[in-house]
Write a structure and sequence with these properties.
Elements: H1 15-26, E1 33-35, E2 41-43, E3 45-51, E4 56-65, E5 68-77, H2 83-96, H3 114-122, H4 129-140, E6 146-149, E7 159-163, E8 168-173, H5 191-214, E9 218-223, H6 228-241
Parallel strand pairs: 8-9
Antiparallel strand pairs: 1-2, 3-4, 4-5, 6-7, 7-8
Helix pairs in contact: 1-2, 2-4, 4-6
Length: 248
């Protein structure tokens, strides 16, 4: 039997508390948008249900439309994770299935150009589209992992996907922010500032690789443009070998 604390909400919680939990597990309220067939959007929630005689938990995406409740099955989530992690897995499955999307910011922006706006909007700390695709493929292979976690608690570096037992840390790097050789294009505005920023990010990546490798971790770095199936194969291969690698 899966412990109730691992899937069931605590009794007596207010609607505000429940909504806050959904926001945190989704990565923000703006990431809970369910597009409807008629062009409207509504806010969704991930619900957890105990199934298979109490041995497993499944996630469902639920929303209200025209006075009725609509629910879509997302699939099984990890038995070993906490309730928050189960909800987070549910949101990842919902995004991988195309059932939810991010709310688009208003056109007026602090960014200096439409292209800059696009880059900034894509600069999310976690749950980017490439990350979600990779996580969905790894999950489909029966792998379970931690999301957006520090491989080493005392080292202030967060990996996108972490396999603690195998000591494998996976980073999905954005082409712009990490200076992809194939797709990085220098900014034409504030060029000195952004060039320094990108160079600093790359040095930090190298330092992270070194620190984790010296601590016995395997590091896998993927570019956001990389085919997610190929990236998943590299991660699975690293899990099998569990030896420090940093090439990408």
């Amino acid at each position: 039997m899966v412990p109730a604390r691992a899937w069931k909400p605590r009794p007596g919680r207010s609607r505000t508390t429940v909504d806050s939990e959904q926001n945190r597990s989704a990565g923000g309220a703006h990431r809970r948008v369910v597009p409807l067939a008629d062009g409207r959007t509504v806010k969704g929630s991930v619900i957890l249900k105990l199934v298979a005689a109490g041995r497993s938990v499944r996630a469902y995406l639920r929303w209200r439309s025209d006075g009725r409740t609509v629910s879509r099955s997302l699939g099984a989530v990890s038995n070993s994770s906490s309730r928050f992690e189960k909800l987070n897995e549910g949101w990842a499955l919902a995004r991988a299935a195309g059932l939810v999307r991010d709310e688009v910011p208003a056109a007026e922006s602090w960014a200096s150009s439409p292209s800059a706006q696009a880059v900034m909007r894509a600069n999310r700390g976690r749950d980017t589209s490439p990350e979600l695709q990779l996580r969905a493929l790894l999950f489909a292979h029966g792998l379970r992992y931690r999301v957006s976690a520090r491989p080493i608690s005392e080292l202030r570096r967060t990996a996108d996907i972490v396999f603690p037992r195998a000591r494998v840390a996976v980073f999905v790097d954005g082409c712009y922010w990490h200076g992809c050789p194939a797709h990085y294009r220098p900014s034409t505005k504030n060029s000195d500032f952004w060039a320094t920023k990108i160079a600093s990010n790359r040095l930090r990546d190298e330092d992270t690789n070194r620190a984790l490798s010296e601590a016995g971790w395997t590091v896998v770095r993927c570019w956001e443009h990389e085919d997610p199936e190929i990236a998943a194969e590299r991660v699975i291969d690293a899990l099998g070998k569990s030896t420090p690698v940093t090439d990408r």
